[in-house]
Specification:
Layout lengths: L17 E6 L5 H5 L5 E5 L10 E4 L3 E2 L5 E3 L1 H14 L6 E5 L1 H16 L11 H19 L3 E12 L6 E5 L3 H8 L4 E5 L6
Helix pairs in contact: 2-4, 3-4
Length: 195
């Protein structure tokens, strides 16, 4: 038989938090994220040398024959394990950018299976592997006792009939729902003025 908790008010846990930051190129996403406490950047777009935080370049590396030598999936797993077991003092993990991580996960699965696209893996197994990997990555990050920041680029959509432009994260909606569903706050950066 289950024992129900006592009906008393709990004090909210103040840390850690998960953030989703999106915005146009050069609007200050990475710069803003770098002000969080003791950050480690998992970088995909090669601009980490322009920042002041420690970073690890995430990527798939191929052998000379085109097969997978280093998987981004394995690299991410190793980083999360190191943060769980041997964290030297990082308090924030920044995924810069989550859009590229999704592409790298898909690419790693395809290279490992020797196919061109997830749809080439029979019975929907490729899509299932991708979904499981992405969800596990997000849940593993959420389980860390650290702030987690996901950064995404901006997509502008202009209605041809009205000329009105709307903006949204460039992360595909189905992936955005997985990531954002595990975040506390969504922040859009926007450059104001000429400077």
């Amino acid at each position: 038989m289950i024992t129900l908790p006592k009906p008393e008010k709990l004090q909210p846990k103040t840390q850690p938090h998960n953030f989703f930051i999106w915005g146009a190129t050069m609007s200050g996403k990475s710069y803003f994220a770098s002000f969080f406490s003791a950050p480690l950047v998992l970088n995909t777009d090669g601009n980490s040398e322009q920042g002041s935080a420690q970073s690890i370049q995430i990527r798939n590396i191929r052998n000379s024959d085109g097969t997978l030598k280093q998987s981004a999936i394995k690299q991410l797993d190793e980083i999360i394990t190191a943060l769980q077991t041997n964290n030297p003092g990082y308090k924030t993990v920044i995924i810069d950018v989550i859009d590229d991580i999704c592409v790298m996960i898909e690419q790693a699965i395809c290279l490992d299976a020797g196919v061109q696209a997830l749809s080439d893996i029979p019975y929907g197994k490729g899509y299932a592997m991708f979904n499981t990997t992405l969800q596990q990555f997000v849940m593993d990050l959420k389980a860390l006792p650290l702030d987690v920041i996901y950064i995404s680029r901006e997509l502008s959509i202009t209605d041809e009939n009205t000329g009105a432009t709307t903006y949204e994260p460039s992360l595909k909606t189905k992936y955005y729902n997985v990531v954002n569903g595990n975040c506390d706050v969504v922040i859009r950066t926007k450059k104001v003025g000429d400077g």
